[in-house]
Amino acid sequence: MPSTGTHQRTLIVLLLAFVMPVLVAYAVLKLGLYQGGSTNKGQLLSALSYEQLAHENPEAQQWQIIAFLPEQCDESCQDNLVLMRQTHQALGREQQRVRPLVFTQSDSDLSAVKQLSELQVTQATANDQVVDALAPYALVVVDPWGQWVLGYPHGSLTTAEHRRDLLADLRKLLKLSRIG
């Protein structure tokens, strides 16, 4: 007959085998050591919408790729406008669901504004809140309800691989979405 010490040792081993993984998982989550899986390449923008920015949705019921046209549209600004158009064209049959949109203000670069019609990009006037919200991003993806979904910071769309990431994110959003 096994001794009491053996029963206690068995009980402790069983408790450790089942309780220890739970405690370790809890500690990893609480200490922020786990970074959840993410398939999107842009930065997820939560709790940002046209409504919160006191701006009317210029292309309601459409997905949008948006950018802001500053006073001086330098080379990176021009690249973003071209990337916006190329991404839109690369969507193929899904392109009718997406509108490329550039926000301007009265002091925006006039030569670049004229180029927008050649690039087949819609233009809208931005209020100060929209300008401030767009400041950290080269491009932003907006859903048909006006929720800002993904942002691509300045300098993040420099390589061909990063440019494909924007297209991949858009395709995934359009595939998973039944709206717009």
Automatic annotation (TrEMBL):
The chain crosses the membrane at residues 12-33. Keywords: Membrane, Transmembrane, Transmembrane helix. It comes from the Bacteria. This is Cytochrome oxidase Cu insertion factor, SCO1/SenC/PrrC family. It comes from Ferrimonas marina.
